[in-house]
Design a protein that fits this description.
With about 160 residues, the chain is mainly α. The chain has a domain of about 80 residues. It contains 5 helices and 2 strands; from the N terminus they run E-E-H-H-H-H-H. Strands 1-2 form a two-stranded antiparallel sheet. Helix 1 crosses helix 3 and helix 4 packs across helix 5. It starts with a strand and ends in an 8-residue tail after the last helix.
């Protein structure tokens, strides 16, 4: 079959152009490899160490110690159709986290200065290690074990342990 060639500068009839023959090319089919019988066991849900949880909440509380939103978090209950006495799950969780962080801060402040500084340094809140005659690793282990004991005795954090 012949058809006319149409170009950008087309002014009517053009000499016919031969139809191009299309050739279909197929790739050779490769059979899929046999499945490998390796089963991966699902990861076990492990609870976070209570000391790590307390320190993590304390680090967040220390980093966000300033009221950056000018009290809007505490005024959120007055927005909407409610009377302001409703329970907001996120606000309740945040208040619980703040209580745990404040209790952790109080326990850290009651420790020896070298242990307090080791906790600050291990949590990346203090950059220099101010005690050249003491090893941060050994003092850090002592400080963590002392802090664990103090948090177990604290009313606010004892439920975590």
């Amino acid at each position: 079959m012949m058809r006319e060639k149409i170009t950008m500068a087309w002014r009517g009839k053009c000499p016919p152009v031969e139809e191009l023959a299309l050739v279909e090319v197929r790739a050779p089919v490769v059979p899929p490899a046999a499945p490998v019988a390796t089963l991966v066991a699902p990861a076990k849900a492990t609870e976070q160490d209570p000391l790590e949880l307390c320190l993590e909440l304390w680090k967040i509380w220390m980093a966000d110690g300033i009221d950056r939103d000018l009290g809007m978090q505490t005024m959120r209950g007055l927005q909407g159709d409610g009377d302001g006495h409703g329970i907001d799950i996120h606000e309740a969780q945040r208040a619980n986290d703040i209580k745990i962080a404040q209790a952790t801060d109080a326990m850290i402040d009651s420790m020896l200065v070298i242990h307090r500084w080791a906790i600050y340094r291990l949590c990346s809140l203090a950059s220099p290690w101010r005690f050249p005659n003491a090893s941060l690793v050994t003092v850090g282990e002592e400080a963590r074990s002392n802090l664990r004991g103090l948090l177990k005795e604290n009313v606010c954090t004892a439920i975590l342990f």
